[in-house]
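# nightly structure sweep
# worker-07 picked up a monomer target from the shared queue
# config: single-sequence mode, recycle default, output format = structure tokens
# input follows
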Amino acid sequence: MTHPWPSLPFEAWKDTCATLHMWTQIVGKIRLVQTPWVNHSWHVPLYVTVRGLTTSPIRYNSRVFEIDFDFIDHRLLIRTGDGQIKTMALQPRSVADFYQNIFAQLAELDIDVKINTTPNELVDGIPFERDQQHRSYDAEYANRFWRALLRADCVMKEFRARFKGKCSPVHFFWGSFDLAVTRFSGRPAPEHPGGVPHLPDWVAREAYSHEVSSCGFWPGNEAVPYPAFYSYAYPEPAGFDTAKLRPAAALYHSGLHEFILPYENVREAPSPDAMLLEFLQSSYEAAADLSKWDRAALE
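# output follows
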């Protein structure tokens, strides 16, 4: 508990990870339907807090509410601007039970919201109201995941501050279940091919309407069964896959078309923050230089 970068082996908590992914999708979709559209879907993510994740304030008619995951006391909180609070314990429970409870609590607060219950960006997603399969919650690993996000969020904000061109906030996308920050060259990009499961092609095309260098952190999945930091460019410039990044532990994943740096390498480094910053900076430099970005104007 004293290590700022906690151990986070994917196999030890992958069932909790899958359940938490669906819970954050439910909460994220509530924010989505109540928030004006922002370019590149910047209106949909969650944000890291000193206790977990939050939607930030959401408008509902003349009222305002927000929903927070608290991974210290392991509660979900729905709070309104007029002082009302509803809570739900974060504990082993099915996605269907979580879905029913959160909407029952919103109804008690006189908040009537409707969401699309099909999970996004998953091939075989089960509609939330029918999902009895995902029901795991290991409080220790949920807390470790949040603490890893908290450290990554701090470093990624430091990296973001070096750029004066258009840049996203550091935010948590519940669709792909990752923390991300994206820099833009300012130039239009070729039309994205789309094809993301349960995500309209127009959403992906608007998200990648302009050249980007994007980086982030994810906890692991079946394709990469360990937590890792990543970096990619869209469109990917020629030679990006063979670029020499720092640190030496960074490697190019040909299936994902991304560079990845295993979280464990960062965690075990003498200076984890410095190693992560080095990876973020060198991967950006590779993308920007190979794509001939106007770095003097952007940095």
